[in-house]
Specification:
Layout (H helix, E strand, L loop, with lengths): L12 H7 L4 E6 L2 E14 L27 E6 L3 E8 L6 E12 L1 H8 L12 H8 L15 E4 L10 E4 L16 E4 L12
Antiparallel strand pairs: 1-2, 1-6, 2-5, 2-8, 3-4, 4-5, 7-8
Helix pairs in contact: 2-3
Length: 201
C-alpha cells in the first residue's frame, strides 16, 4: 500500500502532481499517526520554471534537497511562519517538486484537531499548504526525509478521480514568475471543501 520510491522517479512532474490526488499522506510522530487524502497539489518544473526555487540551476543550502533523487521531502519555511511540504520527484540533479496544498483529514483526526485547535469538519484545518503541515505535525525536521520510511510516507488507497473531477488552474502566490505564473499547474479535486482558497470551483 505504501508507494515505492520508484514511483517518484517519474520525470513527468505534471503527471505526478495530478496522479497524487487521492493518494494518502501519513506522518508518524511519537507513535501518533495522522493522515489525509491529498486533494490539491502544485507542480514545479525544475530549472526552467521561473516559479521554482531551482530556476536557472540555483543551488543553495535550502534548495539542495530538490536535487536529490525523487522520493524525499522538501520542507521549507515560508514568510518565516509556515512550513511547506513538497515531494521531490524525478531523477538526481533534475530538481522537480510538488507542493501539497490541501488534504482531507482521514486518520488521527483528534490529534489534528489539537494541533490546529479546530474541528476536523472545518475546512481550514488542512486547507492551504501551511495548514497541511500544521495538521500533520510537519516542521523543518522533516526536510529530506525518505518517503518510504516510518516518519512520513504516502499510500495508495485506490481513490481515483476522473479527468472532469480535476480542476487545472494557475499556481498561487507566484506572480514574480512572469509568464510561468499563468501555467495551469495547480491541480485540485472539484467540489472538495478542503481545497485552498480562492476556491471558485
Amino acid at each position: 500500500m505504501k508507494i515505492l520510491l520508484s514511483y517518484y522517479l517519474n520525470q513527468d512532474v505534471i503527471f505526478l502532481a495530478k496522479d497524487l490526488l487521492g493518494k494518502v499522506l501519513f506522518t508518524n510522530i511519537d507513535d501518533e499517526i495522522t493522515s489525509g487524502i491529498i486533494v490539491e497539489t502544485e507542480a514545479y518544473f525544475g530549472v526552467q520554471d521561473k516559479a521554482s526555487h531551482a530556476y536557472g540551476g540555483r543551488r543553495t543550502n535550502r534548495t539542495e534537497t530538490l536535487y536529490n533523487s525523487g522520493g524525499v521531502s522538501y520542507v521549507y519555511l515560508c514568510y518565516g511562519i509556515h512550513h511547506l511540504f513538497n515531494i521531490v520527484t524525478s531523477v538526481e540533479n533534475e530538481p522537480h517538486g510538488i507542493l501539497i496544498r490541501a488534504i482531507e483529514p482521514l486518520s488521527g483526526k483528534e490529534t489534528m484537531e489539537l494541533r490546529r485547535n479546530m474541528p476536523a469538519t472545518k475546512a481550514a484545518i488542512s486547507s492551504g499548504p501551511g495548514s497541511v503541515s500544521k495538521a500533520l505535525g510537519i516542521n523543518g525536521d522533516f526536510n529530506k526525509k525518505d518517503l518510504s520510511g516510518e516518519e512520513i510516507w504516502i499510500e495508495d488507497h485506490n481513490i481515483r478521480y476522473k479527468a472532469d473531477e480535476i480542476v487545472e488552474v494557475p499556481r498561487v502566490g507566484v506572480a514574480y514568475a512572469q509568464e510561468d505564473a499563468l501555467l495551469p499547474w495547480r491541480f485540485l479535486v472539484k467540489g472538495n471543501k478542503y481545497v485552498s482558497k480562492p476556491n471558485k470551483f
